[in-house]
Write a structure and sequence with these properties.
homodimer; about 250 residues; alpha+beta; 5-stranded antiparallel beta sheet; two-stranded antiparallel sheet; 9 strands; disordered N terminus; DNA-binding
Chain lengths: ~250, ~250
DNA sequence: AGTAATGTTGCATACACTGCACATGCATGT
DNA sequence: ACATGCATGTGCAGTGTATGCAACATTACT
């Protein structure tokens, strides 16, 4: 019998396989740790892990702990390589980073998902929530809003259909109306901000990136902890940010 | 009943799940394409893919094709972030690349596996076989041999236990004795080469990277298509290569 | 229109997977 | 030395899960 979840059929073995990989990503784990975590028998987990290990998806360390293996990394990298935005943009981003000193994020719109595809860390290497591959919440991030601002209403809806409008901070936009209003501003002005709307100590300035036809591909942002650089500080680099986005656009066919 | 493969128990569902991901990594594929490829019913694949999609491991494109999804990339990136060698080395590698113009590979030894963990492409951006996450064949690559040269015989055996001594080219080393002899040379001289031993049109110079205690962590190589730069050309940069490795070592705690 | 692929759903059956019990390994401590 | 605890590894039997089938829906191709 099939488990229905949100209307789609979900295979139990595959689902737990995924959960296990996710668990191992946090750090090396032992067999019984993993079994306890998911409340299944150790032998079950053992055989799944052996299957993963055989395929190179997990790696067995000397102390018996398991961690993510090279095959998984390789596949992911292959998928990243297939996107040409990061390849084209990386050098430009590093140049911008060198000039400003802050952290640069590059996000790409693929189907109805926005994901980080590159990140160049600033001198203040404080760990932020972002990571290459992480999906971006469109309505409460700089890059997300920059992308939304360029989309026709229909596609906007598609990106926002899963939105939960959680108020992560006091600044988070929690209604579609308020969002649309701000997107209008971003659209006319050509750039947007995130003033502590997801993590209250982080702010950024973001601009959309289009290809040479003018259709939206992604966005980039200059991001900093507020203590390091306020929005006003970041705004000083606005010309450089826009120039970077334009350089990338020009190379995007 | 359990399928035994090379002495370990392998779960069928999980194994095919992995094969499917590997298949999708090559490029977006449709449902029935995938079903045909593995000779299973379309409905079976559909439900597996739905499970993957639910988890973000695969992404459904507008045309009904499936490709690798953000969650998978994110997990892999998380695993890469946990290794500090690439983080420490990346800037140094870029500097070396800028100075030489050729491609730089960075490989790390983790347990009994050597894998590429960073790559900075040269101006001659010809596609090589290597990719971040790919495992390195120890005995027929520059970085592999550089690492082997620093290992005690016992660990050397562990890395070579799966070696098949295939002669990829006329230059490939195909016996343990010949390998050991060359490793001896690399060890005393401090650097090694790959003179078309894996792909006959590619050559490189490689040096090991140790941490400040002197224990081996990985290796880096300066690589080029022979048409672009011969071994003699690459040797001109030997001092820079060694300096880069030393700079990285110093920062490796 | 008609045909042929592809995607999607319900259902029954077989067998893959789980859990159990037990064996084995390897550190403890006494 | 032996016991104790905690870990991983393995044979076996029952059952619940994944599979293929068939029927339908939907799109592509003549």
């Amino acid at each position: 019998m099939w488990v229905q979840y949100k209307g789609v059929y979900v295979s139990q073995a595959v689902q737990r396989a995924i959960e296990i990989l996710d668990f191992l990503a946090e750090g090396p784990r032992s067999l019984s740790e993993t079994a306890r975590r998911f409340d299944v028998h150790r032998s079950t987990v053992l055989r799944q892990l052996q299957t993963f290990e055989e395929a190179g998806f997990v790696l067995r360390r000397g102390n018996g702990h398991y961690s993510i293996g090279p095959k998984m990394i390789s596949i992911a990298q292959q998928a990243l390589d297939a996107l040409d935005l990061p390849a084209v943009a990386h050098d430009e981003l590093r140049r911008l980073q060198a000039k400003t000193g802050n952290t640069i994020h590059l996000a790409q719109l693929v189907e109805s998902t926005v994901m980080y595809v590159d990140k160049v860390e600033g001198r203040d290497s404080v760990r932020m929530y972002s990571r290459v591959g992480k999906t971006v919440l469109p309505h409460c991030t700089g890059v997300g809003k920059a992308i939304l601002s360029q989309l026709p209403v229909g596609r906007r809806d598609a990106l926002l259909v899963d939105a939960e409008w959680t108020a992560f901070t006091a600044q988070t936009i929690v209604s579609r109306a308020a969002l649309d209003e701000q997107l209008e501003l971003i659209n006319t002005r050509g750039w947007g901000v995130d003033d502590g709307e997801f993590e209250d100590f982080v702010n950024c300035i973001a601009v959309p990136i289009t290809n040479s036809n003018g259709s939206i591909i992604g966005a980039l942002s200059l991001t900093a902890i507020k203590v390091v650089a306020t929005l006003d500080d970041l705004k000083l680099h606005l010309d450089d940010i826009r120039a970077t986005a334009q350089n990338i656009s020009r190379q995007l066919g």
